[in-house]
Structure formats: structure tokens, C-alpha cells
Design brief:
Elements (H helix, E strand, L loop, with lengths): L1 E5 L2 E5 L5 H11 L5 H6 L3 H14 L6 E4 L25 H14 L3 E4 L8 H10 L4 E6 L6 H10 L2 E6 L4 H8 L3 H14 L4 E7 L4 H4 L2 H9 L2 E8 L15 H18 L2 E4 L4 H4 L9 E4 L5 E2 L6 E2 L8 H5 L2 H8 L19 H5 L6 E2 L8 H25 L2 H14 L5
Parallel strand pairs: 3-4, 3-10, 4-5, 5-6, 6-7, 7-8, 8-9
Antiparallel strand pairs: 1-2, 10-11, 12-13
Helix pairs in contact: 5-6
Length: 418
């Protein structure tokens, strides 16, 4: 029986699909710095089966499949690429059903919905969760469309976890998301807590909110509001409408990292800092090594932030798509840096974009304003130059033993293509 710590106690997590099971596996994955934790994600049997399937099919199979059911959203957040997208791109229920069926055959059991706003497709999401009851689902949502009826469904189906977006207290959240958003989000959290539904939060941190979102005061507030886990993502300047002033400075990024690491250790609470925990995930996890992304147009992208592809799920099945030329080319370039504090080919090691752009038939999948990799490089190269000395210092502070462990596990986890 698994256990999960939460504000005020410790709960047994049943072995069958359950909305808190996803929280448990997420917490273990980002602490997988030894074999026990690595196998604990889904058990030794699953870990070995996954390796066998990789060698059988000849390509890497992700732990997690991230899917955008729609590009539509009920908010228009400042600097968000989804705000630029048309609202008409959707994956049909039939296509989503097909993708999930194929994912199960490949041994993928964790699915995350994002967008857009996935709850614009509320009924389809619930029906997919019910039909594919052996899968564990999660979704990144602004939460505003969660009402009492949906909360009751959420508690009933038991295999869907929600991560609610928030960016600080009222002033900071409403700054990007619109006036009144904070109050609506807190009302939803109170509703879920009243029904004893475990949920998580998702924070986009940027130049205007790093201090607040990493403070004990704010993190304590979210836990008291009922959150069981938290994800943090640094602002990525994707698309031609990106606001470069929102990119966190090196000192701000380091502040978030150090505070988050301290808080989760002190409070025994799982916080996942996507940009700064490369030393736990052993580098970039994109392009099927640990996760893969399908946008609302059906394009298979290496990552939700990496808007380039040579493959579309409307013309081929998932198995074929995961072994595409671009996915293989992307995986062969890894690691993008020997420093796990610089894992990302967008923000940390943009030199990789030059090599990645050489793969034939790769196109921009940004749904509104296509952006060449060369254009992206010009935006993020100065950021990486400023971050590098800070990243090098953080890496040195890990110690020789930890650095050797990272190198060893990176080789073990990195599936080598046939």
C-alpha cells in the first residue's frame, strides 16, 4: 500500500487507478535518484516491462502523454502563447479515444490534459476518463469551469487529478490572468477541499512574481487551501507575441529553486520546479524519453513548449509517430548539456536548436504565428548566457558523489535508438 503526505496527515493510496495515485507517482519520479525510488514509480515489474517494450519497438516510450484536447480558452493571459491561438483547433472525441487506446498498448498509463483550457471539453474529458478507467489522468486547468456537478463527477470517477493554475495572491494572479480570477480560483479550491478531493496547483513564475510565489506565506496558503502537490514552470517566450520582459532573471530563477528545495524538504511536501530539477529527472525529459506532447491540431511535439514537429496523429497512429525522424533526431542530441541545471534546448542550451533544425520536414507548429528555430535562438541565447555561471555554481554545490550519480543514471535512463 502506498502513502501520500498531505496537509494535516498521511493517507493510504489504493493500488488501483485513483486521482491521488498520479500525485504519488509524480512525487516519486522527481526524487528518483536511486534504484528504489526509480522502480517505486510503478513497481519493478512495470519498470522492467517498459524497458522491454522499448527494445521490442526500437524507440523510447514515455511515462506520460500530454494532450491538448482544444486550443480554446476562457481566459486571455498576458504573454501566453495559447492566447494567440485560434479557438477552433480541436481533437475529436474519436481521435482522443484512439490515442488513449494506442497509449495503453504501448504501456503508457499516465495522461495529462492541457490546452488551451481542457475543461472547454468538460464532457469529453469525463467520458474519456470513464471509458479508459485503467489509466490515471490529470489536467492543467485555470479551474474556473469547475462547479459542484463537475466536482461530484471528479470524486466519483476517481482517476482524474486537477492542477489549478495560480500565480500568487490576488494582485499577482490577476496581473496576467484578468481581474477577479484569483477569487474564482480560491472558490474552486475551497469547493474541492470541502469534498476531500486531492488536487494540485500549477504556477508559472516570471519576473513579476518570483518573490511571492516562492515565499513560505504563499506556499503555506496553498496547502491550507487543500493542495497536495505543486508544479512550477518558468515563463517560456514562445511565439512572436511573447513578452520578453516576463523572463525570470538568473537571480530570480535561483531564488525560486533554493526556496522550493528548502520548503519541500522542511515540510515534506512535493513541489516540482520543472526548469530547475534536471538533476532529479536526469536532464531533458522531452521527445518520448519520459514524456511526449500532442497539440490540439494533432501534431506530436517533443514538449508542450517546443512547437516543432514532423508528425501528425491525423495521418498516422501513435506508435508510428513516436518513432518519427524528428523524435529520433531530438533524442540523439541529448543530453543538451552536461550540467543538469541547463537541461532545456530552449532556455538553457539554445545552441542545440541549430542541430535540431537540420532534421528534414520539421515545421513550426505554433498555431497562429509560425516561429523559426533561428528566431527562437535569438530570443533565448542571451538568457542562457546569463544563466550559465549560476547553473555551474549550483551544479558544483551538489558535490562529486551526486554528480557521478547523475552521470550514471543518465546513461541508464537514456534509451539508445537501434
Amino acid at each position: 500500500m502506498r502513502y501520500l503526505n498531505f496537509p494535516g496527515g498521511r493517507e493510504k493510496i489504493p493500488p488501483y487507478p485513483h486521482h491521488k495515485n498520479f500525485v504519488y507517482r509524480s512525487s516519486v519520479f522527481f526524487k528518483a535518484n536511486n534504484l528504489f525510488n526509480l522502480f517505486a514509480i510503478n513497481g519493478v515489474k512495470y519498470a522492467l516491462k517498459r524497458k522491454w517494450l522499448q527494445f521490442r519497438h526500437g524507440f523510447s516510450i514515455p511515462y506520460i502523454l500530454l494532450i491538448d484536447p482544444t486550443s480554446a480558452c476562457n481566459l486571455k493571459c498576458t504573454g501566453c502563447w495559447a492566447a494567440d491561438y485560434s479557438k477552433t483547433a480541436n481533437l475529436s472525441f474519436e481521435k482522443l479515444d484512439e490515442i488513449l487506446t494506442d497509449a495503453k498498448k504501448l504501456g503508457v498509463y499516465d495522461i495529462i490534459f492541457s490546452g488551451g483550457e481542457p475543461l472547454m471539453r468538460k464532457d469529453d474529458i469525463l467520458n474519456l476518463c470513464k471509458k479508459h478507467s485503467s489509466l490515471s489522468f490529470a489536467m492543467f486547468t485555470n479551474g474556473i469551469l469547475i462547479d459542484e456537478n463537475f466536482a461530484n463527477e471528479l470524486a466519483s470517477i476517481g482517476n482524474l487529478n486537477v492542477f489549478i493554475s495560480i500565480e500568487g495572491f490576488r494582485e499577482k494572479t490577476d496581473f496576467r490572468r484578468g481581474e477577479g480570477t484569483f477569487d474564482k480560483v480560491i472558490k474552486v479550491m475551497e469547493l474541492l477541499k470541502s469534498k476531500k478531493i486531492g488536487f494540485g496547483f500549477s504556477i508559472c513564475y516570471h519576473s513579476q512574481n518570483c518573490e511571492e510565489i516562492s515565499s513560505d506565506k504563499f506556499l503555506d496558503f496553498l496547502r491550507e487551501s487543500g493542495a497536495w502537490i505543486g508544479w512550477l514552470f518558468n515563463y517560456m517566450p514562445m511565439g512572436k507575441g511573447a513578452d520578453l520582459s516576463l523572463i525570470a532573471s538568473p537571480s530570480q530563477r535561483r531564488l525560486v529553486y533554493e526556496r522550493i528545495m528548502s520548503y519541500q524538504k522542511r515540510e515534506d511536501f512535493t513541489l516540482i520546479d520543472f526548469a530547475n530539477m534536471g538533476h532529479f529527472a536526469f536532464g531533458c525529459v522531452a521527445a518520448g524519453n519520459e514524456y511526449a506532447h500532442i497539440n490540439s491540431n494533432g501534431d506530436l511535439e517533443p514538449c508542450a513548449f517546443f512547437h516543432y514537429s514532423d508528425t501528425n496523429l491525423h495521418t498516422m497512429r501513435l506508435k508510428e509517430a513516436l518513432s518519427s525522424n524528428f523524435y529520433r533526431h531530438f533524442r540523439r542530441q541529448k543530453p543538451f548539456s552536461s550540467n543538469p541545471f541547463m537541461p532545456c534546448p530552449i532556455m538553457d542550451a539554445p545552441e542545440a536548436l541549430s542541430e535540431l533544425s537540420k532534421c528534414a520536414n520539421v515545421k513550426s507548429t505554433h498555431l497562429q504565428h509560425c516561429e523559426l528555430m533561428e528566431e527562437l535562438y535569438k530570443k533565448t541565447k542571451p538568457v542562457s548566457v546569463e544563466w550559465e555561471p549560476v547553473a555551474n555554481e549550483l551544479f558544483s554545490l551538489l558535490g562529486k558523489r551526486e554528480r557521478r550519480k547523475i552521470a550514471l543514471f543518465s546513461k541508464f535512463l537514456m534509451f539508445k535508438e537501434k
